Amino acid sequence: MEIARDVFGDSYGVAGRYVDILASRGVDWGLIGPREVDRLWPRHVLNSLVINPLIASGSRIVDVGSGAGLPGIPLAIARPDLTVALLEPLLRRARFLSEAVAELGLSERVTVVRGRAEDHRERYDVVTARAVAALPKLLDWCLPLVGPRGQFLGLKGESAERELLDVQKTLRKRRLSGEVLAVATPGTNESTWVVRIR
Questions:
Q1: CB atoms < 10 A from the CB of 68, how many?
Q2: Is residue 1 predicted with pLDDT exceeding 80?
Q3: Where does 2-197 sit in CATH, by number?
Q4: pLDDT tens digits, 5-34
Q5: What pLDDT, in 10s, does the model give residues 159-179?
Q6: pLDDT grade, residue 128 (50/70/90)?
Q7: Number of neighbours of residue 148 by Cβ within 10 angstroms
């Protein structure tokens, strides 16, 4: 996919190996549906990068409920300046992530943490999640992980605006501001909604 070459630049080969892992082992292990294989680049890998411009250089990131490594692994591949923790409670998925990270040569900057967000005690510059849960529940898990000047970036569907309305009381209580950004996935005419809370 030509746009992927532009987006990933020198790291395109690593991104391609990740897509191969998703298309084979990711499907075999039940992390990716067989029907998703033809759409891995646009719908999953490139889609994960819509939050890239919102992340400052040198940030520490945690990907909550990482699953198959989306968006954490594509971000780590595209941005060598980032340090990424993939937080995943399920053993099978955590094992998949550990193997993928090792095979892609990302072990120096990417760690796999097996555990639940509620039990995790670290703080990060960016807390992100993609297709994990509805926003009220997601914020209960994610906000305690956001560092003093950090932010939460959630990749959501069309319900993002409605979900943000549902958490206004929580945000006011914690003196936080939230917004929904409609961002185009690189190389497609599809929009993704990013909930940004600071």
A1: 26
A2: no
A3: 3.40.50.150
A4: 999 999 999 999 999 999 999 999 999 999
A5: 999 999 999 999 999 999 999
A6: very high
A7: 6
CA 107/CA 111 separation, integer angstroms: 6
CB atoms within 10 A of CB 2: 7
Kindly state the tokens that stand for 26. Answer: 């990711």
Domain segments of the chain as ranges: 2-197
Please check whether residue 27 is in contact with residue 132, taking contact to mean a CB–CB distance below 8 angstroms: no
Distances (CA, A) of 70 to 32, 34, 84, 115, 139: 11, 17, 12, 17, 18
> In terms of pTM, does the model score above 0.85?
yes
pLDDT score, position 185: 87
One-letter amino acid at 175 equals R
Residue type, 64: V
